[in-house]
Batch of 2 targets.
Target 1
Amino acid sequence: MSQDWEELAPGVLRRRMPGWDETVGAVVGSETTLVVDTGPGLPAGAEIRRDLEERSTSPVGFVALTHPHFDHVLGTAAFSGVRVYAAVGAGALLRQGADGLRADAVRHGADPREAAEAVDVLVVPQHEVSGEQVLRLGGREAVLVNVGPGHTAHDLVVLVPGSPDVVFCGDLVEESGQPQAGPDAHPLRWPAALDRLLDLGGERARYVPGHGAVVDAAYVRAQRDELARRFGT
């Protein structure tokens, strides 16, 4: 088991991946495990699955993709036989935009052969969330919530109720750098997405950015206000 995993609450884990510093997460129940994002390629996805299977007797049964960017989705094919969830519309985007996804990965420094291989076996989510979806894992649950658009048109967050509550934010929140508003961002609606995220988690939750260290509600609120100033909303 990799030593890079951090336990945020009992059975709630996250890992900052090397390279692009993207976060992957896991929620371990007594019956099944949910993985949140799958890394930037098949080797990363396979390592994540192997790590979690070594750590727990609970098999991986679900994957939730927070948004359709290469560093968060290209490892999904390593999770064969697993139900994959994403925000509504993400499946069509991944299906139609595979070449763009590969090009984006290579442009950001991914190995061209690995990127091409991952795109060739790209897994399109079978289950799309337009509002909320509760996943029961055995003794605990995870709530998938479509809060976007914001960072992309298809932003999904994962609330894990517990002590404390944990919210996996995807790239709606970033800690290791400024939030990235690429050509697929919806900057005028991003602050409202963070308002929904804060309503979901509340003041005492631990918020897990798509990149960087775990933060609190005050950090998320400050980033929300900065985005509103930045984009004039």
Note: The longest strand covers residues 166-174.
Target 2
Amino acid sequence: MMKENKNLMSLLAFFYSLFSLLYMRGIFGNRLILKQAFLKKTKIRINGKNNIIRIHPENRLQNCLLHVSGNNCEIIIGEHCILSNIELWIEDDGGIIQIGHRTTMESGHIAATEGKSISIGQDCMFAHRIEIRNGDSHAIYDEKSMLRINPAESVLIGNHVWLGADSKILKGSIVGDNSIIASGAIVTGKFSDFNAVYAGIPATKIKEGVTWTRDRY
């Protein structure tokens, strides 16, 4: 009975996602692992080889874009995620974007470059217009030595993190488990403390010893 239910779920997901599947680009030479996930108006664009896009079962993606321009990159979305109006964007070789189980996102742009990663934990809740970047997208050089001074750095967001609307997480940032990033905040540092609230530009800790829930009360 369980096997029949899984087969039925796979069939329903296939037909629900058929429009999105027909408009995928660059799949040959790459691995797309997509089973029991529901895609609506979602585009997948790959320019490169040996890339992996793994969307685990019972995900719902609506109006999303998954873009890879490079080789040996990975996009991994854990089970039971709900993503709406999100761009997952990788440029250069070896980049990784990983999203943990049961995470939800309302809208935004997540960009990994220069072979660095963006790792997002489980049960996170991201509001509208969030932005996460592990690089600056353009090079900055020291005028005298002509050495580049702004390489990309990986980003790590822990489990059960709430990002408020219009918040930004920039390269090299770490956000600890069970944290809250206030609306409009810009995170530029390593905030490893658990159960804390961060706000401001740049973000600083304004409260600790808190927890949060998706319920209103």
Note: The longest helix spans residues 2-16.
